[in-house]
Amino acid sequence: MKNAEQIAFWNGDVGATWVAHNALMEAMLAPLGERVMDTLALSADTRALDVGCGCGQPSLSLARRIGPDGAVTGIDISAPMLALARSLANQESVDSAPVQFLEADAQIYAFEPDSFDVVFSRFGVMFFEDPVAAFTNIRGAMSSQAKLAFCCWQPRARNPFMTVPAVAALELLPTPAEVPPRLPGPFAFEEPDYIEAILSSSGFSNIAVEAISHPLVFGPGLSVEEIVERLVTIGPIAQMVREAPDSLQQPVREKVVAAVSPFYDPVTGLTLDGEFWQVTASR
User: Do residues 67 and 96 make contact, with C-beta atoms less than 8 angstroms apart?
Assistant: First the structure.
């Protein structure tokens, strides 16, 4: 997708669906964001940028870590997500840094130079039409000693959260067209050499791409059938199932229930391994 298509995508049904299931997704992804934040040296006067901030929880976590003398800016293209982010921000303690949310494209937004001491992202930087232009623009907003830290997916094939439901669904559904590598999307940054090339071309130094593993825990307290219903609504097989004929909707769900049941616990929900890149760099 190009940026205009991404904007339409995240402001349409997908953005609204993500907001509706935000608590579920946040519970699964928050530990990864916190792990990446731990790599940043945050002080009381830190000015932080959260790229692709979504519903705002990572921005608010940064604000709590920094405290009232700093500042946090979250930027995203999704109006529905940002509406929730602003609502959540209104509930925050005065002990947190003030947070502003921008509905804008970080690839082209006219940031003020020397605006940020750290730039963070949790799965928010893989969707740029031109990633070198985007990171060059972001770097221009950073102070001379600023640090960048983000996480992104390793290849889909290394992530059972993606593959286990999909393989089951594909027993009944046609195989989707293969997505060319490096196109904007969740797995655009699956190659570590590509990440390094983008950041190097954008002017960053001290680039490190570290492989990290972390279990993805999805739907604690839900039945396995309820979890599968979420997976076909917002998970890795959502589009595939959405486009399936009515006659296959329930059979596909039954296939996925059978496939994920070995990884299910009534208390903890679905737990599948996750493989990610943790990326850090200096301006």
Answer: yes
Contact 260, 229 (CB under 8 A): no
Answer yes or no: is pLDDT of 3 > 80.
no
- 120: Cα separation from own chain's centroid: 11
How do the domains of the chain map onto residue ranges?
A: 3-155+180-216+274-282
* pLDDT reading at 108 higher than 70: yes
Strand pairing category for 142-153 and 269-272? unpaired
Neighbours of 104 (CB within 10 A): 14
Distance CA 83, CA 96 (A): 19
Q: Which CATH number fits domain 3-155+180-216+274-282: 3.40.50.10140, 3.10.20.310, 3.40.50.150, 2.60.40.10?
A: 3.40.50.150
Task: Give the C-alpha separation, 2 to 271, whole Å.
Answer: 33
Predicted local distance difference test score (pLDDT) of residue 48: 98
SS3 for 91?
Answer: coil
Instruction: List 71's β-bridge partners, or say none.
Output: 47
Span 4-34, pLDDT tens digits = 888 898 898 888 999 999 999 999 999 999 9
Q: State how beta strands 99-103 and 205-213 pair.
A: unpaired
Amino acid symbol at 102: L
Alpha helices in the chain (DSSP H): 3-10, 13-20, 22-37, 57-66, 79-89, 131-140, 160-169, 192-201, 224-234, 238-242, 246-260
